[in-house]
Amino acid sequence: MSYAPTPSQTVGPFYGYALPFPRGGEIAPAGHPDTITLHGYVYDGAGNPVPDALIETWQPAPDGSRAGAPGSLRHDPVTGGVIGRDGVAFTGFGRVPTDADGHWAVRTLPPGGVSYIAVAVFARGLLHHLYTRAYLVDEPGDALLGALDPARRTTLVARPEAQRTYRFDIRLQGEGETVFLEFQ
After folding, report:
1. What beta strand segments (E) does the chain contain?
2. Per-residue pLDDT tens digits for 30-78
3. What count of Cα atoms within 13 Å lies in the side-chain half-sphere of residue 46?
């Protein structure tokens, strides 16, 4: 007889019901003329989309400041439920789940002082989340990009698509695996 794994025997995803919040990918203030879209797909080692991953992004404001505005996780004063952003302030932080096809998207402003947006990936089977960068341009003088061979370097550079839209796919392992960063 075979039994299905119990939660104590798996890594998740048990966070999907609580960690995403309303408008978590709407980082740019509503209607801002400089808004860009960063989107992509998360793929597993076999090249299949991951429908239950969670993507977090962090970045400086367009002026290079890193303080951000408080308020990504605003709560309703009556119910206590998370109501998300106010639609006006730029916090520099985003959190979105992938959809059934493994797709994710954030609408943000271009980062100031750097050419990338920091990304963290939470997904089933990962004991620890993964960190990477989505470069909006292939920055010739960047120390990280300069240390990589050209094939690995391309996994960090988002592809421009339509006006002000960039595609950044994340491959968790296998051929074309995204470069992930290790912090100690």
Report:
1. 36-43, 54-58, 74-75, 82-84, 93-97, 103-108, 116-122, 130-135, 159-160, 165-167, 170-171
2. 899 999 999 999 999 999 999 989 999 999 999 999 877 766 667 788 9
3. 3
Question: Cβ(133)–Cβ(156) under 8 Å?
Answer: yes
Regarding pTM above 0.85, the answer is yes
Q: Which residues of 53-65 are buried (b: 16+ CB within 10 A; e: fewer)?
A: bbbbbbbbbbeee
What pLDDT score was predicted for residue 77? 85
Q: Are 53 and 98 in contact (CB under 8 A)?
A: yes
